[in-house]
Amino acid sequence: SVVPSSGSGVNVSDTAVSILNSSLTTVFIPLVYIFIFIVGLPTNTMALWVFLFRTKKKHPASILMANLALADLLFIVWLPLKITYHFNGNDWTFGEPLCKVLVGFFYGNTYISAIFIACISVQRYWTVAHPLSQKLSSRVTVCVCVCVWIVVWVLTVPLYLYDQTVKILNLNIITCHDVNRRNETHFPVGYFLTMGTVGYVVPCVVCIVSYLLTFLSLSRSITDSSSSKKKRKAIVLMVTVLVMFLVCFTPSNIMLMVHYSLLGVEHQNYVYSIYMVALCLGSMNSCLDPFVYYYISEEFRDHVKNSLMCRSERTSKQMKVSSRPLQVTEEIPMPPTNTTTSTVEHPIEDSLNAAQD
């Protein structure tokens, strides 16, 4: 809501009062954030632990997914402040600096997650479509990740340059990021319209194009029945990831741009409550990512199981070997002395495995 300032605080409209006092913002939204916190904190923490300490070979895919898990985790650890704020009747009691930090981390890590999902889609397309070409090195992947973090966090600096907290006189509360003073409206309007384009529209286009090209590449490949099954699993995974991305990020970003567009022309709008709900539900992405990207992999699940049981990788391998049944044969034929063995590579099958993992 945009309101004129008067002295130490502002008076908001009846529409804003109804939104700030509604059970939607004081009960439903914090309950959803509690669910995201309970599910997302342990799953992303475990995912980050596995990628950093249990995975010996740091492939580009694992590096990108480790950064995605870190972005989701940094988003989730600040949710208790937001939960307390909403349960407290949208009354912020932690001071202006902490409100700015919360807003910066909330939006920054949201857009970082979207960008890393786009990077993972590009990496998977390249693995499937060009299995024999030179792979992206781990060093280059790390440089890309560092650049993403730096660029996005630089883009969040403007959020620290204007007041995020506003005292509401006719409600006797202090809001955090929910109310703008009229003389500061132009700044967030231009900023969020830009961030909505850079942080959502561009990654969304990249994801759609990458997975479409990956699907076409898999459709053209000629494989056996075993590889066909893997291809179907890869396609189902791609569709799941794309649908999750569109469902989680599209409503909130569309409502964000609609809200700030109407705000920019000083048009009275009633979409802010819809935007808050869409933003809350869009945050579900941070607790869904681990199950879509990590826990579908059997290798990753084994790493998690070994970590929970405090088993080393060598111990788990020995247990697998010891659990295999022994096959006793009466005679072991010797290979002919004049024959040579050769290895046959299966780039399409390897790329399908990479797409699934």
From TrEMBL:
It is found in: Cell membrane. Keywords: Cell membrane, Disulfide bond, G-protein coupled receptor, Glycoprotein, Membrane, Receptor, Transducer, Transmembrane, Transmembrane helix. One of its GO terms (cellular component) is plasma membrane. InterPro entries: GPCR_Rhodpsn (IPR000276), GPCR_Rhodpsn_7TM (IPR017452), Pro_rcpt_2 (IPR002281), Protea_act_rcpt (IPR003912). It comes from Pygocentrus nattereri (Red-bellied piranha). Its main location: membrane. Gene3D superfamilies: Rhodopsin 7-helix transmembrane proteins. PANTHER family: G-PROTEIN COUPLED RECEPTOR, PROTEINASE-ACTIVATED RECEPTOR 2. Disulfide bonds join 99-176. It holds the Pfam family 7tm_1. Residues 330-357 are annotated as: Disordered. Coiled coil: none annotated. This is Coagulation factor II (thrombin) receptor-like 1, tandem duplicate 1. GO terms for biological process: blood coagulation; phospholipase C-activating G protein-coupled receptor signaling pathway; positive regulation of Rho protein signal transduction. Residues 43-293 form the G-protein coupled receptors family 1 profile domain. GO terms for molecular function: thrombin-activated receptor activity. SUPFAM superfamilies: Family A G protein-coupled receptor-like. It comes from the Eukaryota. It is a multi-pass membrane protein. The chain crosses the membrane at residues 27-51, 63-81, 101-120, 140-162, 189-213, 234-260, 272-296.
